[in-house]
Amino acid sequence: MNITVSEIRKRYLEFFKKRGHVIIPSASLVPENDPTTLFTGSGMQPLLPYLLGAPHPEGKRIADSQKSFRAEDIDEVGDNRHTTFFEMLGNWSFGDYFKEEQLTWVFEFLTDKAEGAGLNPANLYVTVFAGDKETGIPRDEASVEIWKKLFGEKGIEADYLELGSTEEGSEKGMRGGRIFSYDVKKNWWSRSGIPANMPLGEPGGPDSEIFYDFDPSGKTHKKEFGKECHPNCDCGRFLEIGNSVFMEYKKKENGSFEKLAQRNVDFGGGLERITAAANHNPDIFSIDVFEPILKYLPSNLPIRNKRIIADHTRAMVFLIADGVRPSNKGAGYVLRRLMRRAMIYEYMTSDPDLNLISVIAEIVRKYRDAYPDLQEETIIPVYDDENKKFLAAFKNGLKEFDKLIEKGGISGKDIFNLFSTYGLPYESAFEFAKERAGIEINKDEFQKEMERHRELSRTASAGAFKGGLADHSEKTTRLHTAHHLLLKALQIVLGTHVKQRGSNITSERLRMDFSHDAKMTEEQKKEVERIVNEKIRENLPVLRNEMSREEAERLYAEHEFGQKYPDRVSVYSIGPKGATLENPQFERAFSIEFCGGPHVTHTGEIGDFRILKEEASAAGVRRIKAIIE
Q1: Do residues 85 and 151 both lie within one domain?
Q2: In whole angstroms, what is the distance from residue 556 CA to residue 574 CA?
Q3: Which regions of 277-418 does DSSP assign to beta strands (E)?
Q4: 20 to 30 Å CA-CA from 117: which of 166, 440, 518, 566?
Q5: How much is the pTM?
Q6: What residues make up the domain containing 309?
Q7: 503 Cβ partners below 8 Å, 6+ apart?
Q8: What's residue 560's pLDDT?
């Protein structure tokens, strides 16, 4: 009988709990206080402050299974190993244990048949950091020796081989090795990638990756992936299942690196991947969590289409549960793209019995024990509403698409017209053209049309003021500053999920769109008014500082999702009392935002703030209109 995702998750958390780790719940897929990314894409992302030295309330040893989503993998879905949503098993040491304990415990969990994943150690291969001449950071000799000892205790000879780059690995091959070293592109980890790309103050360090070998004979390797096979080869023989990051370095102003005040361990192991390895099946979609999805799909449907529907439906369930709603920008745009791709492939099956609502219900039931916040009554209405709105336009667009095909061809310009007129997703149109008519679309032509459209849009809006301001009058300026106070007050009253989704400010009133699912109560509106007026009466200083975008992001300055900002930005902070340009005291500020101005110099200049109206603006988006008196 195959082992399940739930069993692997349970065993992992119990294993590390016995070793002094506090088990913490998964953070939301929508990051809190992290403007650098739309989604939580790794287990360490919510824990960055503690890796930098802040004390974690649960102590120095913690573990979890973190919900994760990577939008960049959308186009890769369809093979046997890529998914957009996944769970990342993680354990952390904040200045406590280090390499010896970490590698020993992870190896023990992976190979223990009674309390772990029960993998055959003979199928495991590992990689370590080869060192970096540019920064002077040395090769990770300690991990090499630890791995030799661990494999030796299992009676497995573990020779070490330096490969360097993946290209060199393809030339050299494995040559009987068990432990391999790669350069910074493969065995160094930071949120920004290689050391040269890391911003000032960003933490990172060498890592040690673990790979599972699905084909010890090596027969699956094809020369198109390289002359020889090696752990980081893309031929499908090996699957990375875990990575221990030894986060002990921080980038300095001169580009060099210094040791962090504490040595940290950050482990991430793909739950679905470990489960696939435990069942010795390289197809991620063979694991139990996908069974209730795939069983609803017609047997004659191409496997790639099945995997896309399965992945996208599971991802949409978790995104909607964490408060994301379909829209035309930011996280909402990514969700809409997922939903529409799944809907399109559902439509393409031409199977009247296929209903993704039934699939959604099965996913909720499969995961509810681990994630009780998954509720059908929350998720299905969002899906149903988007499906109804989209299919009407999509069917019309598809008719036009078929007409063009019948006339003998379809161009990149035609695809753009279908996209702009009917909302037919251009990614899907490219796929349709290839699958239904064997036509390869000229994507360069499409991109030229898209850029021309953007340029026209920019020209049409060239006279608009930045920040949605109708003018720069005194009243508009006062309302603009009140807008900053309002956003922070909404986050205090409703929760940190609240983000600005648009604004428009005239001399008569301010209007703000913000992410929130429910109508505000009278009590909530009164509390927001009270907080804003309290900060106005405190007459807090309003300060403008120019800084790098990276520095502003490290201050967790609020900014509008989906908006692209230059390398240097203007940041306005409000408060605390006594703050000056020379000493802005950002850590004690009431509000910090990316903003172009203008603003009052002190909040006392604003006047009395009053909410006129709070109403729905779009799915998952509310709108407030307010004035000052």
Answers
A1: yes
A2: 14
A3: none
A4: 166
A5: 0.70
A6: 289-460
A7: 467, 468, 483, 510, 511, 512, 513
A8: 62
DSSP letter for each residue of 224-282: GG-SS--TT-SSSSEEEEEEEEEEEEEE-TTS-EEEEEEEEEEEEEEHHHHHHHHTT-S
Burial 333-369 (b: 16+ CB within 10 A, else e): bbbbbbbbbbbbbbbbbeeeebebeebbbbbbebbee
Token pair for 244: 């221990």
Between CA 83 and CA 239 the distance in angstroms is: 14
- Tell me the sheet residues that pair with 268: 90, 243
C-beta of residue 490 within 8 angstroms of C-beta of residue 528: yes
Q: What is the rounded distance in angstroms from the CA atom of residue 316 to the CA atom of residue 67?
A: 13
- Strand, helix or coil for residue 212: strand
Of 410, 437, 460, the last residue of a domain is 460
Q: For residue 492, with 0-12 CB atoms within 10 Å meaning exposed, 13-18 middle and 19 or more buried, which class applies?
A: middle
| Furthest-apart CA atoms within the chain: distance in Å | 80
SS (H, E, C) 229-242: CCCCCCCCCEEEEE
Task: Specify whether the CB–CB gap between 132 and 195 falls below 8 A.
Answer: yes
Write the CB contacts of 498 (distance below 8 Å, at least 6 apart in sequence): 487, 490, 491, 514, 515, 516
The confidence score (pLDDT) of residue 458 equals 45
Q: Are the C-beta atoms of residues 237 and 187 closer than 8 Å to each other?
A: no
Q: Characterize the bridge pairing of strands 510-515 and 500-505.
A: antiparallel
Using 50 as the pLDDT threshold, list the residues of the chain that sit under it.
Answer: 456-458, 460-467
Contact 207, 244 (CB under 8 A): yes
- The whole-number pLDDT of residue 299 equals 82
153 vs 156: CA distance, rounded Å: 7
Residues 167 and 227: their CA atoms lie apart, in Å, by: 10
Residues 516 and 622 in one domain: yes
Domain boundary (460, 483, 500) is at 460
Q: Which two tokens stand for residue 88?
A: 């990342």
The CATH number for 565's domain is 3.30.980.10
The Cα 327–Cα 332 span in angstroms is: 4
| pLDDT for res 126 | 98
Do residues 593 and 486 both lie within one domain? yes
Instruction: Indicate if 222 and 303 belong to the same structural domain.
Output: no
Residue 28, sorted as left (phi over 0), alpha (psi -120 to 50) or beta, turns out to be: beta
Tokens representing residue 565 in the block: 């900002």
Joined together, the tokens standing for residue 319 give: 């995104």
176: helix, coil or strand? coil
Mark whether 135 and 256 lie in a shared domain: yes
Are 253 and 306 within one domain? no
pLDDT of residue 408: 72
3-state secondary structure (DSSP) of residue 1: coil
Residue 208 and residue 165 in one domain: yes
Strands, E assignment, 435-586? 500-505, 510-515, 542-548, 568-574
Paired tokens of 363: 């996913």
Q: Residue 143: what pLDDT?
A: 97
What are the φ/ψ torsions at residue 482 (nearest 5 degrees)?
-60, -30
* pLDDT given for residue 412 in this prediction: 81
CA distance 579 to 583: 6
The enclosing domain of 196 has a CATH number of 3.30.930.10
Q: Is 535 exposed, middle or buried (0-12, 13-18, 19+ CB in 10 A)?
A: buried
Same domain, 271 and 197: yes
| Contact present, 74 and 35 (Cβ < 8 Å) | no
